[in-house]
Each structure stands twice: as structure tokens, then as C-alpha cells.
Amino acid sequence: MHGRTENQPPLDQSGVALRYLCAVLPMLFHGTVLVWVVFRDQDRLASALVDVGLGVIGLVLMRWRRRRPWPIALATALLTVFSTTATGPAQVAYVSLCTHRRWRQFVPVALVSWLCLVAPYGWKGVTQASVVSTTTGTVVLGGLTVFGLYLRGRRDLAASQREAALAAEREQAQRIEQAKLAERVKISHEMHDVLAHRISLLSMLAGGLAYRTDLTAEETREVALAIQENAHQSLNELRTVLGTLRRDGGMEAPQPNLANLDALFDEVRGAGQQVEVDDSVGNRELLPTQTGRHAYRIVQEALTNARKHAPGSRVTAKLGGRPGDGLRIRVSNPTPSGTSAGPGGRLGLVGLAERTRMAGGTLSHAVQDGHFILDARLPWEASHRDSTGDRG
């Protein structure tokens, strides 16, 4: 088998070092025993060197244990027949094989490893020491098998958790994109009604100039300024429409704007929601219909969000601005402890953020001093009529 198996993550440097350490420690132990044996019997120097050499070979073979787990585990197990220092590399290679959880591979290697454990005593004879050694080796082999299977279980669990997290992220991203698309489509429907209204108004004003001959110069100037203002607003609203997707469907009812906020506040108060309003918007009659509609939707969503996540709390809504300075909306409410957004939470805010961005404004939300604060800023250009009003 070539390459890493499925659900087997790559090892970092610390993981590689740990596995080589697990192989080297038994080698050092058996190497120390060999030194003591050679010190007592010089004739065993050659066999000790062979033992250590085979152990080093087993250590080198460990490098390919993940690419070829079965051949490396089998080869290092066979080395233990002639080398005690090869025990460490053989054990690490066997555990690596067990993590693949392929029974047809690690069961034969486990049997070979056990036979290699008892093989030396076949020609040396059975003694009490050999029985103790065989029993200990068998217990260690069983423990290594359980440990390898446990590691594989942990890897499978971690892999499934990663996949679940990625799936959740993809699902959330899809919901966000759907919310953005739905908001764009909703805006395009709204813009259709507004543009139709403004174009018909322009047609009526232009028709008046074409057929009425009784208008004074000042009245003609006022009509021309009205046409200019409506044309300017139409261009601004058309820029918002361009780039959005338009679904075919029936016409919607006229959309509310800033003038309908009082009715909205009365409605939610009647339902039991506590709302405190600070409205300091100046020259609100000059606010573009498009901006007023966005402002209404932002306040509406903020009140809905407060009812969902902080029921019974007092909501404070502050509105301010004037032509040339922009329109600011700030809605805040206390944040109960232990609350969190569900799987579809904050999608309303995502839609508002997309709406505000398309309108050329900004929207932010944060929790400060135990209060959830929604802050929106919408552009409000100074109209030509406003700038020339003093001279008219």
C-alpha cells in the first residue's frame, strides 16, 4: 500500500520525534544490557555488534512505516529474532500498522511478532525466565494492539469532527449567500415600484411644461427644478438596481419609509415591546425615498432582533442627520447573559449589511458594556433645491 491511508493526518516534527524516541528508548535499554554482557564475556562482542546493527537497520526502516506499513512492520518483526535492539522499531512499526485497522494485515504480523518472540527459546529450551519473558512479551504485544486501535479511533473521531465543522461552515456560508441574494432580490422589487413612480412623475411634469402656456417664469423654474431633482433621485436609485438579480413575480405593495416609523413604534409598543425613541432628523421631507426605505428596514430588523434575543428589554433607538451629513441610526438593547445565535442567527443582520452596502452606507454591530448596539450610516446628499432654497 502506497501513500498515507484515508483519515491519516500528516505528522509534524514533534510527532515524528516522539515516535523515534519511543523506538530509541528500548534500543538504549537493550544496548546497555549488551554492553554489560560483552563486558562479562568478550566472545559475545560479534553477536552484540550484529544485534546493534540490525537494530539500526530497523530504526532506518521506520522512515517508510507510513507509506508501506505492512512490509515494514513484518520486516522489523523478523529482525527481533536476531536482535533485541530491534524491538523498539518493531513495536513502533506495529502500532503504526494497527492504526490502519486492516485486520488482514496486522493480525498476521501480530502472529509473526509473537512467533519471533518465542522462537529463540525453541532451541535454547524452556526455562522459568523464558516463560516470564514470553508472557511479558505477549502482554506487551496485546497492549500495543489495543493502543494502535485506540489511536485509529481517535483519528477517525477527529476526522469526522473536522468534516462536520467544514460542513457546518459551508452550510452557514450558503445561508449567508442566500440571505444576501434574497435581500438583493427584495431591494430590486422595491426599486421597481419607486422607479416606476418617479418616471411617471417626470413624464407628468415634462408634459405640463410642454402643453401649459399659462405658467409664470417662477412656476416654470419650480417645475424644472422638480424635474431635475426627480431625475437625480432616479439615477441614484437606478445605480442600486443595477447589479442585483431581478426575479419575475408579482408587484408588491408600496414600501414604508422614514415617515412610517412612528406607526412602527406604536405597533411594537402595542405588542408590549419597550421602545425609547430619540429622533433628531432635520429636513426629513428632503430625505430620498430610497434612503428612507432603507432606514425603515434597518430599524424594523433591529427591533425584531431585540425581541428575539432580548425579550422584555428596553430598546433605545436614536436617529439623526440632515442633508449633506448623512443619516445615522443607532439601536441598542441589553444583552442577556448566556444567549447565542442559532443556526440561522444573524442572517437578518447579514441582509441589512448587504442592503446598507449597496446603498453606499455602512453598518456595524457589537456588544459593549452589556448592550448590543447596531449602528448604521446611510448617505444623504444635499439636494440642489436645498442648496438654493435661500435664494428662491
UniProtKB/TrEMBL annotation:
Keyword presence, Membrane: yes
Bilayer-spanning residue ranges: 17-38, 45-64, 70-94, 106-123, 129-151
Gene3D superfamilies: 1.20.5.1930, Histidine kinase-like ATPase, C-terminal domain (3.30.565.10)
Top-level division of the source organism's lineage: Bacteria
Annotated spans, Disordered: 308-346
Annotated InterPro entries: HATPase_C_sf, Sensor_HK_TwoCompSys, Sig_transdc_His_kin_sub3_dim/P
Enzyme's top EC category: transferase
GO cellular component: a single term: membrane
GO MF: ATP binding; phosphorelay sensor kinase activity; protein dimerization activity
UniProt EC number: 2.7.13.3
Domain Signal transduction histidine kinase subgroup 3 dimerisation and phosphoacceptor, chain residue ranges per copy: 183-248
Matching SUPFAM superfamilies: ATPase domain of HSP90 chaperone/DNA topoisomerase II/histidine kinase (SSF55874)
Keyword annotations: ATP-binding, Kinase, Membrane, Nucleotide-binding, Phosphoprotein, Transferase, Transmembrane, Transmembrane helix, Two-component regulatory system
Catalytic activity: ATP + protein L-histidine = ADP + protein N-phospho-L-histidine
Protein name: histidine kinase
